[in-house]
Specification:
alpha+beta, 5-stranded antiparallel beta sheet, about 325 residues, 60s Ribosomal Protein L30, Chain: A, 4 helices, 4-stranded mixed beta sheet, 9 strands, porin
Length: about 325
């Protein structure tokens, strides 16, 4: 019989396939059934109590019926002799019948094939230390189409020659339910992949210090705010970390006011930043100071517009 199987992977619902794997299957094929001299028999013989009772009962009944038919004028001695002879004769004849034996036998001695099919459902429990090997618990239902086997019935009396009562094909269906424990082995099962050793991730590189900083000012002011001092301090610290040959400080102003006034205002702002850098430990000779007034706005505006982002000093580390 050829069988096919399908395994269910339960890992998607959190049950690893290394623990248990349900499967179903089915098969179809051809099955031969061999009845090798399968027989059943029955024997019937006399039993002394039954035989004696049966013989006496029948004899008495027949004697009474026959003696009643004798003419009334029959002499008593003739009647008595007739009854005795009749009784002896009846007893002998009935004993020959009631002492008989009989036997009957039914025998099947045949081979027959038929189409068979089966359904299978089971659980496989992998044996981890032997890849591919699993213990199984399964249920099987197998059935065959009609099976025909020749059956013969015979009988005999007093050990005489047997008489055949009938000899014909007996047809029957076969259904079989079974639960089995077993093992199965799957060839070419891949071994579990070894654990992959990964190197620890390299530490993140330290951020590259910025080389350009913007310091903003209030309207028409050149003094440094607390936030402005923090930015200048950061620029001074990074200037000592990177290869800096010079520090450029450029002052700017918005377009509110005359160009001449804004030029002077941008200069004061640049000087204030340079002085704070020097206070933070930067050599004054490493600082170049320039003032551009309103000529290089960060945000283009019309004349006379107050733009906070244009009121600034740019620090560039070179």
């Amino acid at each position: 019989m050829a069988n096919v199987f399908y395994d269910f992977d339960l890992s998607s619902i959190g049950i690893p396939s290394s623990a248990v794997m349900p499967y179903v299957g089915g098969g179809i094929g051809y099955v031969w059934r061999d009845h090798d001299n399968v027989r059943g028999s029955i024997n019937v013989g006399p039993a002394s109590g039954v035989t004696g009772g049966l013989t006496n009962g029948l004899t008495n009944q027949l004697v009474n019926q026959l003696t009643a038919s004798l003419p009334p004028e029959t002499p008593a001695d003739v009647r008595a002799e007739f009854v005795q002879n009749l009784r002896n004769t009846l007893n002998n004849e009935l004993n020959s019948v009631t002492n008989s034996t009989a036997s009957a036998q039914i025998r099947s001695d045949d081979v027959n094939g038929s189409l068979a099919y089966q359904g299978i459902a089971g659980l496989a429990f992998p044996i981890r230390w032997v890849p591919g090997l699993a213990a199984t618990l399964e249920y099987r239902f197998m059935a065959t189409e009609g099976v025909k086997l020749r059956t013969t019935a015979t009988a005999r009396i007093n050990n005489g020659a047997p008489t055949t009562l009938y000899s014909r094909n007996t047809e029957f269906d076969n259904y079989n339910h079974s639960i089995m424990l077993g093992v199965r082995y799957a060839f070419n099962t891949p071994r579990p992949a070894p654990a992959v050793m990964t190197d620890a991730p390299a530490p993140a590189a330290a951020p590259v210090p910025a080389r350009t900083y913007l310091v903003f000012f209030d309207f028409d002011r050149a003094d440094l705010t607390d936030r402005a001092r923090q930015i200048i301090t950061e620029a001074a610290q990074n200037a000592n970390r990177v290869q800096t040959t010079r520090i450029e400080v450029a002052g700017h102003a918005d377009r509110a006011g005359s160009p001449q006034y804004n030029q002077r205002l941008s200069q004061r702002r640049a000087d204030a930043v340079a002085a704070e850098l020097t206070r933070q430990g930067i050599q004054r000779s490493a600082i170049t100071v320039q003032a551009f007034g309103e000529s290089r706005p960060l945000v283009a505006t019309a004349d006379g517009v107050r733009e906070p982002q244009n009121r600034r000093v740019e620090i560039v580390l070179r």
